[in-house]
Amino acid sequence: MIGDSKYHSLDPSKCIGCTHCMKSCPTEAIRVVNGLAVIDHERCVYCGQCHRACPTHAFYVEQDDLAMIRSFKYRVILFPSIMIGQFPGKYSEDQIYDGLKKVGFTHIYEVEQPMQVMIDSINEVLADKETPKPAISIYCPAIVRLIQGRYPSLTENLILRKAPHNLAAHFAIEQLRLEGALREEIGLFYATPCIAKIAAVKSPVGESESIVDGIVNMNQLYNEVMKVISDHEVDDHSVQRKNLSAEGINWSLTRGESCHFGSRSIAIDGIHNAVRFLERLENDQVKGIDFIEMRACDQSCAGGILLTGNRFMTVERLERRAKRYPSAKEIHQENNLEKAQELKRKLILDPIMPKPHFAFGKDRVKAMEKMDKAQRIVCFLPGIDCGACGAPNCHALAEDMVNNKAKMSDCIFLQQKWVDEGRIHARKAFLNIQKKWGADRFKADCNKRGRRNEGF
Predict the structure, then answer these.
(1) Is the N-terminal amide bond of 134 cis, ω within 30° of 0?
(2) pTM for this structure?
(3) Which of 184, 236, 349, 409 has a 20 to 30 Å separation from 282 between CA atoms?
């Protein structure tokens, strides 16, 4: 559920209250209070924009301990193909797989397999005349949460099919059971490229609980593999990639999904692009589109904040890798998966419910009164959205005021006007600013963190 847990936090000792995170947040979920950024987890969709914008790396991810894998006899690592794209080109796929086994995993599955099962399942949804159009992919959990909270009327457009890591998890269990493994002996761990997928595993949407037992930061896993990876020829692990297809390898990249569905489909990456498009969609300004692929990160999962490599280089490597693999249809026909229908059935999600964020509370009458009051307050604010008040813009400050979270004196322009009119003393105005931003904020320091272009 939105806001039910924290999957990322802020280290106060690193935060300098620079407002970069606050300004970049697409849901206005961050304020600066007493010189420190504060996350409103009710509004946060875990898109990771604050992590990218922070010049001091003050944000960190809440993750599981890698040591927990030792609790299981069969230790399965599930990871999207983009992880392979992180490694230097001198390492082969088998060397990377071998490194993962040295870290402690017994079985290795890239999650985008068997991909034809997923493609067929989504096509069945699109073929249903009852499916609202345009149908929106649920692949990116940050987009799902954004729609639930900010565009609740579009929730019915979400395709009720699980993400590929669920497909691979069910497939891995079936394969291991054929080897004689019991379900309780199998530990499934997902290597994630972003916070949103941590939230999707820990607090799944459209299912009561995730099939995955633990989640691993892909950045951490990459570093662990690099410590043990061999420079020499290793055993052949290709049997664990026998259901991996070109479509599967490209799935996590921009247009990796949309190219398979509908006569008219589009792909959107970047959270701010998604917000702008969803506003057009909600206002009924988009016509004739069958399918929308929407990802929060620029270059889709290749731009995840828990990756080590350059996102553009990752895309290039994966596209080259995909050319070496057969199509999903060829693999499907060759391997003749007996339980494809059962796998498709397991991919069906329960209905996803809207979780609207009520900026002015759930009481409709009081909310209307607060909205009118906020509009009147905005008339007195400068409208330049400077962020010096600790809110991302003047409308957000007005909203905070009517919710008793801010005061008119938080606006430094109003304060200056009041000083000029003799309504408050200059000393009082300065102390107000000092209280908001801290006493050391005004000291000259040429080495101050957060200066121009830092963090970008």
Answers:
(1) yes
(2) 0.89
(3) 349
